[in-house]
């Protein structure tokens, strides 16, 4: 099976290189990996003790960050390395202020690549987030006596571990991972059923991060003035489905302000075509004579504002759940006591089920159902108030996962 895994990795590399000829995102990932070794060589010396966090993409990074920050508190003299597999994670984080001493792409998981990469770092502790497992990497780290952890682990029935050919993958995890910190009891029991018993249930570390959102300054210029005395719906990380919902609401209720933050700024041109009278946020910064009462829709054509925008919302409609791209972060909105509406494609997001059970969120199969429910909430203040309170309470009552994880890591 080890031979087949390595064949798979070489096929993956070949496929990505071919696809990079036609896809800019894949090209950035392939080209970026060529710089990974140089980045760590310039950032670390042989005497530096390194804590390494790997995240597939941005969502996993956000889950791992609270733990990484606490580890830095415990080991202030250690240096920090963060690696990504996806360009969307790498490119978002590398532009921001970070506690990391180096941020780069994870090399492709061949034995040669991994050995060269690791040879330049004195790694004491490594953790990966959720379910991004690279088996040559894990084996080589263990050969170097590195402590290995999985943060916010999430197992589900359709994973390869639970198939007839999954025994090899399970064996690798049994040999190499020191401890699994599971998001849910269900994940813990599934992992235990296949022999992954070095584990505990510590919850979702993202709750630790979003709890802090309310304590910071969440002011955004012009947003309060734009909303005025009306209710506001924030469309977070919207795709075409959420744009369709916005259009339905726009056609039926003229007394609500709609703030749309697309998942990709390339969608801004499409939004301008759908809503020709909408205001662009970038234009607000330079305008001195805006007629806010005459404007119902604001398009956010800037990055980094979404989590603060939720503090102004009465309702949040979060993207990604009406198709298989993956539901975006619903916890940022819930943390502010905002009821969240989303599509029902969220198998890998157990927090969505929990928020629904808490009556702080609602999912729908079709866009028109979501639009109708949003309109219902706008006209039913008591129901809106109840869902808002439930959403905020749902986040506030979650355990401090990072502290539980740090306590266990220190004990090991």
Q: How would you state the average pLDDT, rounded?
A: 93
Instruction: Describe the main β-sheet briefly.
Output: 7 strands, parallel
- State the strand order across the main sheet: 3-2-1-4-5-6-7
- Specify the structural class: alpha/beta
Beta-strand segment tally: 14
N-end to C-end Cα span: 31 Å
Structural features, described:
With 412 residues, the chain is α/β, with parallel strands linked by helices. It is 46% helix and 17% strand. It has helices at residues 2-19, 24-33, 36-43, 58-74, 87-94, 111-119, 135-143, 167-176, 185-193, 206-211, 223-227, 240-252, 268-274, 281-284, 306-309, 331-335, 350-357, 367-378, 381-396, 401-411; strands spanning 49-55, 79-84, 102-105, 122-129, 147-153, 179-182, 199-201, 231-238, 256-262, 279-280, 297-299, 315-318, 340-343, 361-364. It has a 7-stranded parallel β-sheet with strand order 3-2-1-4-5-6-7, sandwiched between helices. The chain has a 7-stranded parallel β-sheet with strand order 10-11-9-8-12-13-14. Helix 6 (111-119) crosses helix 7 (135-143), helix 7 (135-143) packs parallel to helix 8 (167-176) and helix 12 (240-252) packs across helix 18 (367-378). It is globular and about 65 Å long. The chain starts with a helix and ends with a helix. The mean pLDDT is 93.
What topology does this entry show?
Elements: H1 2-19, H2 24-33, H3 36-43, E1 49-55, H4 58-74, E2 79-84, H5 87-94, E3 102-105, H6 111-119, E4 122-129, H7 135-143, E5 147-153, H8 167-176, E6 179-182, H9 185-193, E7 199-201, H10 206-211, H11 223-227, E8 231-238, H12 240-252, E9 256-262, H13 268-274, E10 279-280, H14 281-284, E11 297-299, H15 306-309, E12 315-318, H16 331-335, E13 340-343, H17 350-357, E14 361-364, H18 367-378, H19 381-396, H20 401-411
Parallel strand pairs: 1-2, 1-4, 2-3, 4-5, 5-6, 6-7, 8-9, 8-12, 9-11, 10-11, 12-13, 13-14
